[in-house]
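Example record

The entry below shows one chain as it appears in the dataset: sequence first, then structure tokens.
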Amino acid sequence: MLDINQNTQNLLAFVAEYAQLTASEEELAACKILLDSIVTPVRMAPNNALEAIEPVTTFHLPTVETQATTSSPDARSETTSSSPSTTDDLSYFTVSEAAALLHAKKLSPVELTQAIVKRIEQVNPHLQAYVTLVTEQALAAAAQAEKDIMAGNWRGPLHGIPIALKDLVETKGIRTTASSKVLADNIPDHTATVAEKLEAAGAILLGKAHTHEFAYGAICPATRNPWNVEYITGGSSGGSAAAVASGMAMLAIGTDTGGSIRIPSALCGTVGLKPTYGRVSRHGVIPLSWSFDHVGPITRTTVDAALMLQAIAGYDSRDGASVNVPVPDYSANLKEGIKGRKIGVLRGSYFELVTPEVQQRVQQATQVLSDLGAELQEVEIQTIQEAIPLGFTAIAAEASSYHQKWLREKADLYTLDVRVLLKAGELILASDYLQAQRRRSVFSEEVLQLFKQVDLLLLPTEPCTAPKVGQELVDFGVIQIPTLTALIYYTAPFDVCGLPALSLPCGFANGLPVGFQLVGRPFDEAGVLSAGYAYEQAAGWYKQHPLLSFV
């Protein structure tokens, strides 16, 4: 009798040999399990809806009219948070608070940077948020910022603000490793667009924050959660979120391919914004998957997210996916409120995978929005089950394409989990990749159609709080699923369709942060941020900071 599993594994071995890819029997077995889980659903999807769909390798949102029939929101007066009463802990100032003091010359960029450098010295040995620090450069930049501001040359709200960059963002002359031994000695000769823009805005670079290796995972193994070091930060932008949450940076840049800005933001209690695909340049950012990668801010408040997005958004001819659309003033209408805006609360069997504690916190957040005047209605995405398989199929193929040469020359330098994922990606058929991209267009159009009914979508960011370090499965009572699958469960669908998505803190469960998401129309980051601001001011969770026993 034919052993189907062995036969399939033999075929994979043949393909690997044809591709000149060395893979052990154990690696091929792991590849088979992974491929079965992601490619089979793509092949089983009905084809009738795809007949006229041309596959794309640089993703563009479908052109669907999405104007909702809602009246303009009523303007509301909102109270902003007051500045801390003392400067004893400058590291927990928000950007808007610090910027006001810097502009008024009541606070020095040097004083602010020194305070956060001290914080890093105390905290980073325990959390390992940073992989590379540039302290001397940061202090020199702070001294120059002080001179400029004192001379009346204030560049704006990010001038003199200390920040972190995810260790994928290339910076000329500064080590950029993607948290991998493969690039352990990589010193770029150019700077990413997003880093150039932040430097032009006067931001002060503190260093590079850890990522899951090459952003290919949702754990960020090197870094620990500031709320409890026995738990993960989530990833891949775990270092960025941990740095902001613990006061080791006022702002940070993350990237999001399957949820990597929003996952660690939810698990660490920060605000994380994945902009619309094409809104922020990816030029000079080490890719995971070209047609899924997004670059965006991780901050403590929506105000700070708006300020950072203002600095980094805009068309870049060096990025083939960059979209030339106007960049609005994200702070201008931040306080307009949400009265009369329609929010679609996502429902259906897919959204039943959530722990009771997280479900309760998200329901409470939903009630707050309703109390503020939002009009809630339940909506459903019929094909949501397809999002992760089709997304992972395309991501795996693109990632393996980028790593093809290194995988043959220095495979032993990759961590085991990433090496298996990359080898599996090499075994995906071209037809499966193209079919996934075609399915992606159909899925994206279905999601966009919802915005004819509503202004925003609402759902949990994560179905659970942060898993423990080393935890392989998440228990939902009736089912246990792999930690990676759980972490990307609610985030990955909105990388597939490229829509702006904001993760906001909405409380705690068992001492760990909980987050929920607001998803908007293409390029309506302003609308997402204003709704987030209304909730944030009413709920006040942004005022909570982790109690770090080792400080």
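Notes for this example: The radius of gyration is 22 Å. The CA atoms of residues 218 and 235 lie 4 Å apart.
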